[in-house]
Every structure is written in structure tokens, then in C-alpha cells.
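Re: that backbone. C-alpha cells:
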């Protein structure tokens, strides 16, 4: 009963539709009716700008982070295999909540930020490595989708071959997460192949200055 309650709470935390609430309360729109139609940080960045996008990303990451920390309320030993399994389930519940939020008609985002917050809570060093891969790919390609896919694929590779995680459940989770991210980005993959995927204009300001000089 205790575990079921914690998992339900984790799902409800993940269901907080940050992008939807921010877009409605502060901008008078529903973010799901614009851009890619996803209620996530990436679409918020594209439609509402850096300030709104950064806020949404931070809160979405916190959802995964806090959901995992619910494991502190359990009776499991902190260094046991059971606690790792519980953390994985709690994090996954938050990610599912983000993708299918009960507070927003079950139409959410892709869960990348929430997934990252979950990993950050369980294994900070792995999370830092993943974010390094993400920003490297973003700098090289300026594709957010490709950066997310690359980081997700790097996750199980890091877990299996670099950090050599001993817990079987976490290894399975890492592999499953990579497949999930790739699956939820299938439209982006099609656009990348066809050359129609939009890029993040990292150097827009620099180019504007050059044009004005």
C-alpha cells in the first residue's frame, strides 16, 4: 500500500503541466496549439522564448528529481537493491505523468527534462555526463531533437560501459529510456532525414551584430 501511494504521488507530481499553465496564465495561449504541439520545454523555448522556456525546463526537471526523492519516505534500506528499484519506478511514474498529465487532459510533453531530473536525483555524475553530450551536440548541430536523442543513447552506454551500474533494474531502465526517447522523437527523426527540422539560432545575436557593424 505504501509503494502504491508513493507511485501515485510521483505520477501526480509529474502530471503538473508546467508549460500549459505558464502559457495560459502568462501569455494567454495553450502551448499545445502552437509549434510542435508538445507541452514541453523545447516547444516553450521556440514559442515563448528563453525566459519561459528556462522556467518550464527547470520545473519539469524538478518533477523528476522530487519524485525520486519520495523514496526517502519508504521503509527500504537506502543502500539496498529495493531502494534503487523504487527510485526507478517513482521516476518513471513522474515521466509518465509528464507525458500523460491528468491535470491537462493527458496531453503533455515528451518527458526529456523530467527524465533528466530523475537521473540527476539517482546518479548525478551520469546526469552531468548526459547533459555534456546534449550541449556538445547542440553546439555542433543546433538541433534540440538530435541533441536529446544523442543524450538518451549515451545514457545506457554510460551506465553499461563507463559507470558499470550493477543494478539490473537500472540497466534495463537506461536501455528502455533510450528506446522511449527515440520512439517519441520519430517525427523529429523524419524531419531530420528530410532536412526540415528547425534549428536553435544559437548565434543569432552575434550575426545581428555583424550585420550592424
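Recovered sequence:
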Amino acid at each position: 500500500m505504501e509503494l502504491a501511494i508513493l507511485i501515485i504521488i510521483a505520477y501526480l507530481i509529474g502530471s503538473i503541466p508546467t508549460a500549459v499553465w505558464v502559457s495560459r496564465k502568462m501569455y494567454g495561449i495553450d502551448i499545445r496549439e502552437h509549434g510542435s504541439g508538445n507541452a514541453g520545454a523545447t516547444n516553450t523555448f521556440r514559442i515563448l522564448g528563453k525566459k519561459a522556456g528556462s522556467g518550464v525546463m527547470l520545473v519539469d526537471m524538478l518533477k523528476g528529481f522530487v519524485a525520486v526523492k519520495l523514496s526517502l519516505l519508504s521503509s527500504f534500506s537506502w543502500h539496498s537493491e529495493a531502494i534503487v528499484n523504487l527510485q526507478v519506478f517513482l521516476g518513471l511514474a513522474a515521466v509518465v505523468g509528464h507525458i500523460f498529465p491528468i491535470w491537462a487532459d493527458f496531453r503533455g510533453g515528451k518527458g526529456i527534462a523530467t527524465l533528466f531530473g530523475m537521473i540527476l536525483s539517482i546518479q548525478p555524475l551520469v546526469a552531468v555526463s548526459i547533459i555534456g553530450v546534449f550541449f556538445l551536440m547542440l553546439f555542433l548541430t543546433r538541433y534540440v531533437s538530435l541533441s536529446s536523442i544523442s543524450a538518451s543513447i549515451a545514457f545506457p552506454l554510460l551506465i553499461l560501459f563507463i559507470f558499470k551500474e550493477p543494478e539490473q533494474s537500472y540497466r534495463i531502465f537506461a536501455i528502455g529510456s533510450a528506446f522511449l526517447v527515440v520512439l517519441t522523437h520519430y517525427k523529429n527523426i523524419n524531419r531530420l532525414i528530410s532536412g526540415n527540422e528547425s534549428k536553435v539560432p544559437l548565434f543569432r545575436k552575434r550575426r545581428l551584430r555583424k550585420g550592424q557593424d
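The radius of gyration is 18 Å. Residues 1-114 form one domain.
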